Amino acid sequence: xxxxxxxxxxxxxxxxxxxxxxxxxxxxxxxxxxxxxxxxxxxxxxxxxxxxxxxxxxxxxxxxxxxxxxxxxxxxxxxxxxxxxxxxxxxxxxxxxxxxxxxxxxxxxxxxxxxxxxxxxxxxxxxxxxxxxxxxxxxxxxxxxxxxxxxxxxxxxxxxxxxxxxxxxxxxxxxxxxxxxxxxxxxxxxxxxxxxxxxxxxxxxxxxxxxxxxxxxxxxxxxxxxxxxxxxxxxxxxxxxxxxxxxxxxxxxxxxxxxxxxxxxxxxxxxxxxxxxxxxxxxxxxxxxxxxxxx
Length: 295
Ligand SMILES: Cc1cc2nc3c(=O)[nH]c(=O)nc-3n(C[C@H](O)[C@H](O)[C@H](O)COP(=O)(O)OP(=O)(O)OC[C@H]3O[C@@H](n4cnc5c(N)ncnc54)[C@H](O)[C@@H]3O)c2cc1C
Hints:
Number of domains: 2
Number of strands: 19
Bound molecules: flavin-adenine dinucleotide
Helix content: 25-40%
Distance between the termini: 25 Å
CATH superfamily of the largest domain: FAD/NAD(P)-binding domain
CATH architecture of the largest domain: 3-Layer(bba) Sandwich
Structural class: alpha/beta
Radius of gyration: 21 Å
CATH topology of the largest domain: FAD/NAD(P)-binding domain
């Protein structure tokens, strides 16, 4: 199969790239699975123009329907390999099929690091969150734990003191920048030395059990262990990820390799919907422009 633009990733960044690329009349294929987007498990209340708390799956489905209505093609398949092919690219998907294209947009998001303990998966969206910045407002006046020893956890713990009635910063070793750690502690986060063993509850999270037996009653658990980008495919396309695994882009969302664009969480923090969508628009427009021989 041939296409002008192939977009790897079916989250908000990839879908917005698809909308803008196909509206420029570039033949556009979006690859990837909606249910694997970070947004799929999210409730959003900080996105421009949507005042009510909106669920991620609904936003994603509407975004995909829009992309399709403008002529995008979507294949619910993961990409297994990518390489240069003359002036263009050869993209291989899990079925073995290949797509030859003129421009590629990498919109593969990040993989958030998990605790891998009982209750983590079961209570996702019902008290378990990986993003204090996103979900802080849902825990006004409630008790929460922030898990992780790094700077990201310190920032989350400090932030949550402005919303929650009690913040337990749980870590088996704090490695956060000293100033950030001090700020969290001064703001009132209680440092708890320990390792989480299980997240417990009924309909929603009710407590966190630590190794050693201590059980803390609370309403929310923020897992703030950081994330890795899903940038493996970038190297196949001659783009070297940064040391934190993100992909560096310029203001046109161009990477260091001609014809390869990137957008969304994969380009680094902030990991937020608004940024993913904004970069998606830029990447889609410029990828289509290149593919159609326009500037
Ligand atoms: C629990 C939670 C709550 C959140 N709440 C908010 C919020 O309230 N407000 C906010 O602004 N942000 C929130 N976020 C962050 C927001 O969801 C992300 O910033 C946004 O989804 C990033 O979009 P993206 O398209 O870059 O990546 P993603 O949405 O993660 O999409 C990446 C896509 O790439 C695909 N992919 C990866 N590898 C491949 C491959 N090899 N082949 C094909 N496809 C591939 C995946 O399947 C997925 O479809 C939240 C995130 C989480 C986890």
